[in-house]
Amino acid sequence: MVKTLAALAKPKRRRDPDRTRERIIDAATIEFARYGFDGARIDRIVERAEISKNLLYYHFGGKEPLFIKVMETAYLLMRNHHRDFQIKDLGPIEGMRHLVSYTFQHFLDHPEIISLLNSENLHHARHIAKSKEIKQLYNPLLNIIGKLLEEGQRQGVFRHGVDSVDLYISLSGLSYFYLSNQYTLGTIFNTNLTASSRIEQRRQHMIEVIVGYLCHKPDASPLQVKPPC
Question: Which residues of the chain carry a pLDDT beneath 50?
Fold first, then answer.
């Protein structure tokens, strides 16, 4: 098609570096989630992002720095999801129920994160160990968990001696394992674990497991145990 004079007269749109970086990260996320770090190819990333290879190297320097940036973005997404979670108007039991549900929902909404984590664990986290950002992202989340635990203990509804890190690993693991193995487990048990009804059943099960553990006081006799949950 021959361009009109009006089209030719329009100034060329300036390249937006931030937008270009976003396109590269989006394309790289798909590539790394699908093929892992070892199987990912720069050629497929630039093709999907519709940029030149030189432009990718200009912004990120290479495959490993790009993978680290993808992982930082994934962890930041998880952290932002938890930042939206407000507990100031919730009691400790209801707050913990929401935290378990929010964590599960995040993995449901972003299954690519599971694939990225699987890939990085194969490498013993040697890539994210080079990141200065990722470790800092979890401090606010642990503070949220700590406040819920402290308030629950103050009200006498939560047990004492629960470690925030242990608790987060438990509630995250309950979500992660179910979703990362939903097809193999579904085949073994002849159950469609991806069905919406089964997903909601799993959500309620996780909530009951975590909150039930917190509300159970191992030093209390059966007659002293109250069912606050």
Answer: 1-14, 222-223, 225
- Residue among 74, 125, 134, 81 nearest 103 (CA): 81
Checking 131-135 for CB contacts under 8 A at 24+ apart, the result is: 131/68, 131/71, 131/72, 133/72, 133/75, 133/76, 134/71, 134/72, 134/75
User: What's the chain's length in residues?
Assistant: 229
What is d(CA 38, CA 127) in angstroms, rounded to the nearest whole number?
12
pLDDT the model gives residue 14: 45
- Interatomic CA distance for residues 208 and 189, integer angstroms: 22
Nearest CA to 73 among 24, 38, 35?
24
Q: In angstroms, what is the C-alpha Rg of the chain? A: 23
CA distance 106 to 175: 9
The two three-digit tokens of residue 6, written as one number: 């009006």
Q: How far apart are CA 76 and CA 161, in angstroms?
A: 29
Q: Is residue 102 within 8 Å of residue 81, measured between CB atoms? A: yes
